[in-house]
Give the backbone structure.
Amino acid sequence: MSFLPVILLAAAAFALAALMLRLPRAGWALFGAALLFGLAGYALQGSPGYAGAPKAAAREARDVGVALVDARRELYGPLPPSRFVTVSDAFARRGQFSDAAGILRKSLEENPRDAEAWLALANALVENAEGQLTPAATYAFSRAEQQAPANPGPGFFLGIALINSGRPAEARQLWSDMLARAPADAPWREGLKERLDRLDVLIARMGTQ
């Protein structure tokens, strides 16, 4: 087997983004560069002559990416996201969070008021740092909240990042404040309350250890 199928797949991905998803010309260079970097990495490390052997870590990253994208879209629906966010979501669903973040940075240079893009960037940065809340991700979360203060997405995902970073007490305070400010008929209120109750159980167990 040669590298030809991989090259053809990359070309097809570029055509999909440029033509079907209508990626603006300003983003063609960035998207093409991401594909080229992927091909370069495959050329250096790939073994097209051997049968595929998927790794557990890669599968886990893809599962996390799919879950993050789907959960975020539920909070920002029903309007579709921007074209850049759509393209970055495709990378995130494959667990390629660094590539997703690169595309989102370009998107936010053109439209810094895109709240969903800021949140998608925050999630991508957290996952690219193996679940840790970095200063760059914290900034992206804050920008997402500034642009859409009524949307629970930034606070919800920031709480998860805090928990994964070993700061459950801060996550509890954040979610408690969100519930206190939430309208009584907010559709996401019950789900957040359930997660807060589970977090209380986790914190109590940690206190007894």
Observations:
- The two ends are 55 Å apart (CA to CA).
- The CA atoms of residues 192 and 198 lie 10 Å apart.
- Confidence is low (pLDDT under 50) at residues 1-8, 17-21, 36-53.
- The chain is about 75% helix and 0% strand.
